[in-house]
Amino acid sequence: MKIELFAIVVDDYDEAIEFFVGALGFDLVEDSPSLTNDGRPKRWVIVRPPGAETGILLARADGERQAKAVGNQVAGRVGFFLRVDDFDAAYRRMVAAGVEFVTSPRNEPYGQVAVFLDIAGNRWDLLGPA
């Protein structure tokens, strides 16, 4: 058993792809035309960190209810965790790419950590080795 995908609701496919691929260094696994359940056009967009099995479905908000969830998918808390082997290099690359960090890097018993915001405003932990 494994988690194959999880969705992050975003405002715009292309801006989200640019963030996850350009700023975070993820791979664009799929970007295919698709249809909503009622036949309207949408895209099936999947990104994932290099070498990872679990992907993120970048789902454009469809309607008012989903638009309200953009950036608040886990009620304002850190809900996503990106583990890297070289914390300092990843942090520098992300800062240079314009990623907004809301905390400074710090050391915790479980490793280095700093909180950043994704393109939608969701909070992520960037995690490095202990």
Report what the structure shows.
Strands 5, 6, 7, 8 and 9 form a five-stranded mixed beta sheet that branches. The mean pLDDT is 96. 21% of the residues lie in helices and 40% in strands. The protein is globular. It is an alpha+beta fold. β3 (41-48) and β4 form a beta hairpin. The protein has two domains: 1-63, Roll (2,3-Dihydroxybiphenyl 1,2-Dioxygenase, domain 1), CATH 3.10.180; 76-130, 2,3-Dihydroxybiphenyl 1,2-Dioxygenase, domain 1, CATH 3.10.180.
Short structural description:
The protein is an alpha+beta fold and 130 residues long.
Describe the secondary-structure layout.
Elements (H helix, E strand, L loop, with lengths): L4 E6 L2 H11 L3 E9 L5 E8 L6 E6 L3 H6 L8 E6 L3 H10 L3 E2 L4 E3 L2 E7 L5 E5 L3
Parallel strand pairs: 1-4, 5-9
Antiparallel strand pairs: 2-3, 3-4, 6-8, 7-8, 8-9
Mean pLDDT: 96
Question: How many helices does DSSP assign?
Answer: 3
Under CATH, the topology of the largest domain can be stated as 2,3-Dihydroxybiphenyl 1,2-Dioxygenase, domain 1
What characterizes the major β-sheet? 5 strands, mixed
> Can you count the beta strands?
9
Q: End-to-end distance, in Å? A: 28 Å
Specify the CATH architecture of the largest domain.
Roll
* Helix-strand sequence: EHEEEHEHEEEE
- Helical content stands at 10-25%
Measured on Cα atoms, how large is the radius of gyration?
A: 15 Å
